UniProtKB/TrEMBL annotation:
One term under GO cellular component: membrane
Listed Gene3D superfamilies: 2.60.220.50
TM stretches of this protein: 213-232, 269-289
N-terminal signal peptide: none
Keyword field: Membrane, Transmembrane, Transmembrane helix
Name under which the protein is recorded: GPS domain-containing protein
Length: 437
């Protein structure tokens, strides 16, 4: 229920922000000044929704001097701090088609929505195991959305050309993490969002402003305990290994027992070493890919790596287009059902039956299974009779049809069967010979 309430609340806020964007475009068009005036570049409008929630809408155009556009959201707290958003000029140029305006709408979530998100992000308590720590919001969630000149939001999952900087807190605690609300997972996530350190000597343990760099727009907040929840999942795996036989297998005594000659020749021990070697190879291969990715320049990213080239060469033979190495594996798995369907259809065609879709192919295949042994017996009898008479199997039916004339027809058919292979032309010639006889 909490997940459904969270999805409903996020959808309602997205619709309210779209209405705010359309209203801001209308007001900006009415307030438009002469060309080149500062008012034409950025127009900030404070809006109030029917539910009483305040939001800020900024109608912007790409600045000529390539300087980022900095906007503030909400009201200042007791210290005078207001969350800020810094939009690079490259992002505005990429979104605005032909210099058209771009609308950025940002606003804080209501207190009721904060409670809903808090309940949705809390994992359900389990009576059999200790519950993982639930992430807690250290700041009020801030929703940010970009709209084009027609009031359409950017597609979900679209990555921005350059990251947008968000200043969510002035004095953030050491455990605060930049996070966004993942609508599909119904939880806070840090994927694609990272905390910015302006100087190399700045330590993450010191309190300071929480500045986040993000490549996509959604609902953001400073979250505490997000890393602890991930560590809890890892600790649960380790605890499972400790409680299982893995603790004795990977102990010093277990390793000594596996190295004994009497134990090393047993099948379970051999399989265990094979699996361990396979996992080590996978780890080395993953580390090698990470090493290549870390040293790849921007120009090299447009060219496929050697591993990707091999994957393309291997999986393109199936008639599918592949991207990188990971996407080629996904495409290969996707084409397996088509390969199974083709195999079933070919099997049905070999039995002389017509096939339709995949579902009908399975039904026809099951129907023709009882007839398959009978067909094999008929073919075997046909082969035996043809061998006894010294004829080709295809000529046997001509002899059976002629009956009284088979004595006259046999010498010619035997001669033809021994001279050349069976062809379509020969079938027609034998039929003509049977008619003449």
């Amino acid at each position: 229920e909490s997940q459904a309430a969270a999805r409903k609340g996020v959808a309602e806020m997205a619709e309210a922000q779209r209405d705010s964007a359309l209203s801001a475009l209308q007001q900006a068009a009415a307030m438009a000044g002469p060309p080149g005036s500062p008012q034409e570049q950025v127009v900030v409008i404070q809006l109030l929704s029917p539910s009483g929630e305040a939001s800020t809408a900024a109608v912007m155009k790409a600045p000529v001097d390539d300087q980022p556009v900095i906007l503030s959201a909400g009201q200042a707290d007791e210290t005078g701090f207001r969350p800020a958003v810094e939009v690079p000029a490259a992002v505005l140029r990429d979104i605005s088609a032909g210099g058209k305006p771009v609308v950025l709408v940002m606003g804080f979530m209501s207190d009721a929505m904060v409670t809903v998100l808090d309940l949705a992000s809390s994992p359900p308590a389990s009576p059999l195991a200790s519950s993982p720590p639930s992430p807690k919001m250290a700041s009020k969630p801030l929703s940010i959305t970009l709209f084009d000149s027609e009031g359409h939001p950017l597609p979900k999952g679209m990555k921005l050309k350059e990251p947008i900087l968000l200043t969510l807190q002035q004095n953030a605690s050491a455990g605060a993490t930049c996070a966004f609300w993942d609508e599909e997972a119904g939880a806070w996530s840090a994927e694609g969002v990272k905390r910015v350190q302006f100087s190399p000597g700045e330590s993450a343990s010191l309190t300071g402003p929480l500045v986040c760099a993000t490549s996509h727009l959604t609902i953001f907040a400073a979250v505490i305990g997000l890393l602890a929840a991930a560590i809890f999942g890892t600790s649960q795996v380790l605890q499972t290994l400790v409680c299982s036989n893995a603790a004795s297998i990977f102990s010093a005594k277990g390793a000594q027992a596996l190295l004994r000659f009497s134990k090393a020749t047993q099948t379970p021990v051999i399989l265990l070493w094979v699996l361990l070697a396979f996992h080590v190879l996978c780890l080395l291969f993953a580390a090698w890919l990470d090493y290549l990715e870390s040293f790849k320049s921007e120009e090299e990213q447009t060219e496929p790596t050697r591993t990707e080239t091999k994957a393309r060469r291997k999986y393109t033979c199936l008639g599918i287009e592949v991207g990188g190495f990971v996407s080629s594996i996904i495409d290969y798995l996707r084409c397996l059902p088509e390969a199974l369907e083709k195999m079933v259809k070919d099997s049905i065609k070999s039995l002389g039956m017509k096939v339709g879709g995949f579902a009908w192919a399975i039904i026809d295949y099951m129907r023709c299974l009882p007839e398959a042994p009978e067909k094999m017996v008929r073919d075997s009898i046909k082969s035996i009779q043809a061998a006894k008479m010294g004829l080709c199997e295809e000529s046997l039916k001509l002899v059976v049809v002629q009956r009284d004339e088979e004595i006259k027809l046999l010498p010619e058919l035997k001669k033809r069967c021994s001279t050349r292979e069976w062809t379509v032309q020969r079938i027609n010639e034998d039929e003509d010979l049977a008619k003449k006889s």
